[in-house]
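[Q] Does anyone have a clean C-alpha cell version of this?
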Amino acid sequence: MATDRRVNLEPAWILHHRPFRDTSQIIDVFSADHGKLALVARGSRTAKSRLKGILRPFQRLRLSWAQKSDLGTLTGAEIAGPPYTLTGDALLSAFYVNELLLFFLHRHDPQPEIFALYGETLDALAGARDPAPGLRTFEIDLLRLLGYALDLEYEARSGELLDDGAHYEYRVEEGPVRSRADADRETYTGERLKAVAAGAFEDAETLRAANRLLRRVIHHHLGGKELKSRKVLLSIHRDRMRASKSTGRSGE
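[A] Here you go.
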C-alpha cells in the first residue's frame, strides 16, 4: 500500500457503514478505479455534518479521500445522481448484492467490469416488479467475472455437449455430471441447464432451477458463511409460501 495517496472525486458506491467512536463512521466503499476500500468519515454522524444524508447505500457518489494506511480518511463527498428508490424485496435484494461484493472483492483491487455490473443491477432491481430474474443474472455474471463461471454447456467427465433429455448433478468443482433422476439428489435436465445459461428467466421453472443451483454454488464459494440478507429473503419467501398454502386450504 502506497503512503500519502490522495484521490479526488472518484465515482463510488457505499456498500456498508458502521459507527466509529462517538461521531464518526467507517464506510466500506466500492470505487471505480481503486476497488473496495474502507474509509473513516470523521464527524459524519453529528447533526450538523454536511455529509449527513449523503453517505448512504444505493446512491451514486463521487468521493475524495487520503490513504496513509489500509484505512483511509474521507475528505469529501458529492452526490452524482438521483438515489435509487428500492423497497420490499428489491431493497433486500440490493443489500444481498452488497453483501456478496463485501465478501468476494479484495481490498484495493480494481474491478471495473464488476463496478459497471453493480450499477446495471441496481437499475434492473429498481425497475422490476420481480427482482429475482435480475438477481440471478447478477449472480451468474459476478461468478464469471470472479473466475468462478458456471459450466452449463458440457458434461464434466465426458466433455460431451449436454443432452436435453438427460439428467445431471451439478458439482461445483467439476460442473454437470450425468446422473439418474433421484428424489434424494438435486438434478437438472440438460435442457434446463441450457435455459439457465441463456438467462431464460421468464420461465418460472428455469428461474427456480437457477435459484437452487446458484444458492448451492455461492454457498460453496462463501465457505459456508450465511449472508444476513439472504437469510431474511428466504424467511420471507417461506412465510409467503405458508400463507399461500393456508389461503388455498381455507378456500377449498
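[Q] Thanks! Anything notable?
[A] DSSP finds six helices and eight strands in the chain.
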